[in-house]
Write a structure and sequence with these properties.
Helix content of chain B: over 70%
Strand order of the largest sheet of chain A: 1-2
Order of helices and strands of chain A: HHHHHHHHHEEHHHHHHHHHHHHHH
Strand content of chain A: under 5%
Structural class of chain B: mainly alpha
Order of helices and strands of chain B: HHHHH
Largest sheet of chain B: none
Number of strands of chain A: 2
Oligomer: heterodimer
Helix content of chain A: over 70%
Mean pLDDT of chain A: 81
Chain lengths: 463, 147
Amino acid sequence: MVFGLLPGLSGLAALAVLIPFVYKMEPFQGLAFLLTCHAVVYTGGSLTAILLGIPGSPPNAATIVDGVPMRRKGLGGVAVGAALGASGLGGIFGALVLISLLPILQSVVMLFGPADAFLLSLLGLTFIAVMGSGSAWLGLFAGGLGLFMSFIGDEPISGVPRYWFGSEYLLDGIRIIPVALGLFAIPELLSLMAGRELSQTKGDFSGHQALQGLREVLKRPWLAIRSSAIGAAVGIVPGAGGETAPFVAYALAKQWDRDPSRYGTGVVEGVIAPEASNNAKEGGALVPTLAFGIPGSSGMALLLGAFLILGLQPGPDFLREHMDISVGLVIVLAVANLLAAALMILLAPMLTRVLSVPQSYLVPILLTLVVLGAYSTANDMRDVLALFIMGVMGVVFVRFGINRAPFLLAFVLGPSVERYLQVSLNIYGGEFLLRPTAIVIIGIAVLAFAAPLVRQRLQRRKA
Amino acid sequence: MTRSALAFLILSTLGVNALVIGGFTIGRYPTNSNIFPAIAGILMLITTLVLVVQNWRSPVVKEKAQDDAPSQSEPMVWVGLLAIVVFTLGFRLGLPIFALAYSYRNGNTLPRSIGLALGVCLIVEVVFRQILNLPLDWGWLIETYLK
């Protein structure tokens, strides 16, 4: 959770730092230790996102869209309570998905191929116009720009270098953490330095508000369950980009709402949806890791390394020989998420005192964390430069009222769409659109788009 | 939408599309490699056209000074200074010096500012150097001197 609170440090950094500690542990003990740390990082990140407008890790950026406006309305405590409640619920849901799929894990993962990863990524991309508040056209513009920037560097299949201007850094593509921190953290810190934010946020938080936030989650069980299901489904597909789950969950919550225009102005549903899916995706991401030894994300790749260090080989045999460990990990995942949410709710009133720290103290510390967070991605000073450049872009976006979330969503999904489309065309040709899972995903996409329109029309008729 | 916002949209769309065309012509990228950037460029072009037409129908908003919005010019100078300090003096020296200067300039006493700078030193050294084991950059100036 501490890693989640620090901007730029993700679950990946937490795993990298903690792996050396598991060498002398029992296999289950070591794995439970690492999985717990990795799974609850996003719970901590939600607090930073809501209170400071700085995403603890890139997926927390979706929480900012409504979390920060809620804080500005004086409902920071409700947003934090709702985020923590949704995180806990999402984590438990992810664990339930994992345990229910354990007996049929292999056949479930086999259902998803590169074509499905492409379609899921494309489905995510279709939400760029829906993210955030304001004009959908501006959202599409931001998405287009994010998409273009995600294509800088080597083309994933042929390796043709594009738009690299002779820079080795650009050849690898711009990394996500400097982009997310630059877009969201720098404008927020500039605002803080200008003295505007603190006066609007002081004294907003109370324990009662946190409990009210929890109640708000319980009042909307279907939203929490639906968002968790989206998170778990995106997590299961290797390479679909688990980081997009909160954005997809947010966009769907907005689309299915009776009044989508409320989103982006500070509604609790805009906090519940991304947070529930964020923690649920970890349970989903464990599915391909355990069943095939295929890590669904970079974090899972490190966890896979830990399995090997502890003398275990994930894959089809692992499930037969170590079902006890598999079930144990599921229980650990559920308990860790529940405990993390409870602990954060207890600690939140203390942690939120950061809002009353004068900006002359807070700003240098936050800038230190942001700059070093960007640098720690790959120990590369060029990431720090990218942070400042993206910071300028973030300021321009804020000034002109352009949504930053669609930019980030497109930036994350662009490479997956490109890679998996080419792989799918090479393997299946154009016929991949006729695969059963492809038809189901296309059906979901059509349903997601058509249902709100149909409902609106029905409501108009009733009126 | 303001004039400067429209100008930003138009310029960035033109810039991206110029890069895409340059990729096809000067860069000689194969079609397969440049098709997705081209799609992104076309998406930007369509959205910018729609926004321009929308604003043409309802005239653009003239930019006016927002009295209630505090100026961000000084904060931007500070962030620019941070970038310069980090790249010349590195993290270990640059970040504490920035913290000291920022804190002192913003009304804190010198002892308190020194205390804050020491705190930043501790964060850099303990969290990032010792715990995370990051090989921290020394900055251009210090590295030149060390050489």
